[in-house]
Amino acid sequence: MSTQQQQGLGNGRNWAAVPGETETYEWSVDPEHGLVQGPLDLEFLRGHRIHLSLAEGQIALLIQGPDLRAVYLDGGHILDIGRGDQQIPPECHLIFVATGRGLDTRWTRNAPLDLGHQTDVIGSCALGVTAPTRFYATFLAGNDTWDEAFIARVVHQTVSAAMTEILDGVADDPVRLQTRLTGLDPSELDDELAPYGLSCYRIALYTSAPPVESDSVETAGQFTPAGHN
Q: In angstroms, rounded to a whole number, what is the distance separating the alpha carbons of residues 196 and 167?
């Protein structure tokens, strides 16, 4: 293996030695370029190899048409592009996901979590991509390009629906709702978010105004001052 091919392999989980005479292209993911990057068209690399270097918190998805063929995890990977039995067809594409960036969603006073009652809920939720295949099927499949703002909006809608389901039983009582929010654990969202390939690892939600206990209010009797004769 050439020196160029050895660099950056790290703890690669799926790499192989290849003949040194074939030109190898280096490719890595820049997390500053967005949560989802690509697709990289492999047609122009037909007959060549890609040395794919992925850091922790980065994955690459190999797509052929609408189908997800492979998921590459952190480490070094040699991708041989061509028509041979052990090669990757050139009509495939690579999509890169910088899972280390995380996905944050927020509810503000101007755009609170809508529970269908008068009490508004505000706060934030931090998510991670834990099942790349489900994440792809939910948010990426069928698209040629991805706008991170669009993905964030769809994720926000998904998490909002999950939170509405979880809080449904106490949403109509501000005091019980505040108590429920105080004890809310991120793991409680896992069952709702797992089908979408997401998991919650931090959550902080509050009622936008402190709940007020309802007390009986005494009404003072009317007083008529003494008149003059």
A: 20
For CA atoms 94, 95, 99, 100, give the dihedral sign: positive
In angstroms, rounded to a whole number, what is the distance separating the alpha carbons of residues 213 and 22?
A: 75
Cβ atoms of residues 113 and 160 within 8 Å: yes
Residues 120 and 199 placed together within one structural domain of the fold: yes
pLDDT digits (tens, 9 = 90+) for 142-182: 776 677 888 889 999 999 999 999 998 898 888 899 899 99
- What is the layout of strands, in order, in the sheet containing 24-28? 24-28, 49-54, 75-80
120, 70: one domain: no
Query: Which H or E element spans position 36?
Result: strand 36-41
Token pair, residue 31, equals 């997390």
Q: Which pTM was predicted?
A: 0.73
